[in-house]
Design goal:
The structure holds two protein chains of two kinds. By secondary structure, chain A is an alpha+beta fold. In chain A, 20% of the residues lie in helices and 34% in strands. Chain A has a single domain, classed as OB fold (Dihydrolipoamide Acetyltransferase, E2P) (Beta Barrel), CATH 2.40.50.100. Chain A contains four helices and nine strands; from the N terminus they run βββαβββββααβα. In chain A, β2 and β3 form a beta hairpin. The longest helix of chain A has 11 residues. The radius of gyration of chain A is 13 Å and the shape is globular. The N and C termini of chain A lie close together (9 Å). The relative contact order of chain A is 0.25. By secondary structure, chain B is of the alpha/beta class. Chain B folds into three domains: 41 residues, no CATH class; 255 residues, 3-Layer(aba) Sandwich (Aspartate Aminotransferase, domain 2); 124 residues, Aspartate Aminotransferase, domain 1 (Alpha-Beta Complex). In chain B, β13 and β14 form a beta hairpin. Chain B is globular, with a radius of gyration of 26 Å. The model of chain B has no long low-confidence stretch (mean pLDDT 94). Classes of the chains: A alpha+beta, B alpha/beta. Chains A and B meet through loops of A and α14 of B.
Chain lengths: 129, 476
């Protein structure tokens, strides 16, 4: 079973979210990277871009296809993991660590309450399996 | 295989011109100094080197003329040679586009092709100008945009189902629309979800029917009503028209605009053998916006009508892929109404037969009511969809489409088309069964093809696109 760290929030579209004050760090889950297969390209937005909740914010391309990464909450793009441009396989190798994709300055922290908890995401994975 | 640069030797030539009797003139004097004076780095080869090189290259080519080509959603049917013969008649082949207005026979072919396509689809009018399916989509969306603008409507959203061809959202975005996705339920458009996303912003819903799972959108009349009630239009992606010829018409289902892939449904070559042709059909109310010129039949015979004040303009130079249009016309006329209906019946029968042959070994998540193609899943088989596809190459088959549509995990999308015999389908099914009995054996397939297993990850991460990069790679 894919790893689901308990200190993170999750979405139904398989993004994980780490809350750090007014910042949220976003990546894709271990389950998502295993389904995507080898990641070969990551397209990142520009810092400062304002993103609505649920809007596509980055693109991850694997040998199987292209997937959008959706902003789990509303905010503006704060930091980007530029390293992914040269080493996209970090997403496969360390999805919860060095494979983080970007961070957002969150507009409204209460929006985090709408995200899935680790238990809820785990249940979702069991349903999909 | 060697590159043509790797053949031959310095100074070798295929042809030595006879000594000229004309006086020699200096190039510099004729062209000036800014022109290149160094010789180009061209291969230096004999005529036989050239002939062998290209003949051997041609032998490496895979085509439907060579073997079975079940590439889902692509309708890789056999292209009857009669169509080639007719398109190669000197009067078609040598017609110069600038002389077209005088070439009444060619205009008649265009007119009658427009007319046949309109009758097959239940559309009021057709343009033959777009050069490919995606180009047809873009043209269709430009027509939808023109229609709404002309009616003072500001609509900027296009709805596409999650099972759609990737070209649908791409074409909509290219045309300046915002793409809104609608989810599927049991492989079909979810009516309740659709109701939630339609609004006064909806310019159109783009739909393929049967959809990419090979399923007929049976609620199409209700879908059309929901979209039309909101003031939107319906776009039909004709990629899967091969399932419906002579059975049901997009126009009767409520579609307002559609494209035909002449290179799929109407048997003109594609997949490297192209070019394509993405003719677009429209309902009466969209006709004024069609690209000009349109072939018409007037009191003085066949002519090209350029006088179309509301036209979106031209979407291609001249008249589209004219010789492709001749082939599609020949195909339709040769088969006739009954023949075309037979095409769809056999295409659906073949897909269902192959589906039944493979049922024991491959799961087909949405197999109820499959039409001209089906999507199997390679989950939990010991080989991934990619590995099965690669293994098939060793047996001389073209791979099916894999990892599409996205709503099926490890998807293998198989479309046999009507032109295959039951024996070929049985051989293909037996081959898949054989591969799955001994999965380990095929993990590194293909072993017998000219190019062995490609490292697709490395190819994507570090593509070699130029000869300089290739030389550097070899050096490393």
């Amino acid at each position: 079973m894919a790893k689901v760290p308990s200190n993170l929030y999750y979405t139904e579209t398989h993004e994980w979210i780490r809350h750090e004050g007014e910042k949220v760090v976003i990546g894709i889950t271990e389950y998502a990277q295993s389904k995507l297969g080898d990641v070969v390209f990551v397209e990142l937005p520009s810092t400062g871009d304002d993103i609505e909740s649920g809007a596509p914010v980055a693109t991850v391309e694997s040998v199987k296809g292209v997937s959008e990464i959706y902003a789990p909450v509303e905010g503006s793009v704060w930091e980007l993991n530029d390293e992914l441009e040269d080493v996209p396989e970090l997403i496969n190798e360390d999805p919860y660590g060095q494979g983080w994709i970007l961070s957002l300055r969150i507009t409204d922290e209460s929006a985090l309450d709408d995200l899935l908890t680790a238990e809820e995401y785990q249940a979702l994975l069991e349903e999909e399996a | 295989m060697k590159l043509i640069w790797e053949r031959g030797k310095e100074g070798r030539r295929a042809y030595w011109p006879s000594p000229s009797e004309s006086p020699e003139v200096s190039l510099e004097e004729l062209l000036g100094k800014e022109y290149r004076s160094e010789p180009l780095d061209l291969p230096e080869v004999s005529e036989l080197d050239v002939v062998r090189h290209f003949t051997n290259l041609a032998h490496e080519n895979y085509s439907v003329d060579a073997n079975f080509y079940p590439l889902g959603s692509c309708t890789m049917k056999y292209n009857p040679k009669l169509n080639e013969e007719l398109a190669n008649l000197p009067n078609f082949l040598n017609a110069h586009p600038l002389c077209m207005e005088g070439l009444v026979g060619s205009i008649e072919v265009m007119y009658r092709t427009q007319d046949l396509l309109a009758r097959i689809s239940g559309m009021a009018a057709v343009t033959l100008q777009p050069l490919a399916g995606a180009h047809g989509e873009l043209t269709g969306l430009m027509l939808i945009k023109a229609y709404h603008q002309d009616h003072g409507e500001d609509r900027d959203e296009v709805i596409v189902p999650d099972s759609a061809h990737g070209t649908n959202p791409a074409s909509a975005a290219m045309c300046g629309f915002k793409v809104v996705e609608v989810k599927s339920h049991d492989g079909l458009v979810d009516i309740e979800e659709l109701k939630k996303v339609v609004s006064s912003k909806t310019a159109a819903l783009m739909l393929t029917n049967p959809n990419t799972l090979g399923l007929f959108e049976k609620n199409i009349i209700e879908i059309a009503r929901i979209v039309h009630d909101a003031g939107g239009l319906l776009y039909y992606d004709g990629a899967n028209l091969n399932a419906l010829l002579g059975k049901v018409r997009p126009g009767d289902m409520g579609f307002d605009v559609m494209h035909f892939n002449l290179h799929k449904t109407f048997a003109t070559p594609h997949g490297g053998g192209g070019p394509g042709s993405g003719a677009v059909g429209v309902a009466k109310k969209i006709e004024p916006y069609l690209p000009y010129p349109v072939a018409v039949k007037g009191p003085d015979g066949y002519a090209l009508d350029f006088n179309r004040p509301k036209s979106i303009g031209k979407v291609a130079t001249f008249y589209g892929s004219f010789n492709v249009i001749v082939k599609a016309f020949s195909y339709m006329v040769n088969l006739g109404q009954e023949g075309l209906r037979g095409v769809s019946e056999l295409a659906v029968l073949n897909a269902n037969y192959l589906n039944a042959l493979l049922r024991d070994v491959l799961s087909v998540p949405y197999s109820e009511g499959v039409m001209h193609e089906f999507v199997a899943s390679a989950e939990n088989l010991g080989l991934t969809a990619l590995e099965i596809a690669k293994a098939l190459l060793d047996f001389g088959f073209h791979a099916p489409t894999i990892y599409f549509p996205l709503i099926v995990h490890e998807a293998l999308m198989i479309e046999p088309t009507e032109t295959e015999s039951p024996e070929t389908l049985e051989e293909f099914a037996d081959t898949i069964k054989k591969i799955l009995t001994d999965p380990q054996k095929y993990k590194d397939a293909p072993a017998k093809t000219a190019v062995k297993r490609v490292d697709d990850v490395k190819a994507a991460r570090h593509p070699i696109l130029t000869k300089a990069q290739l030389d550097a790679e070899k050096f490393n």
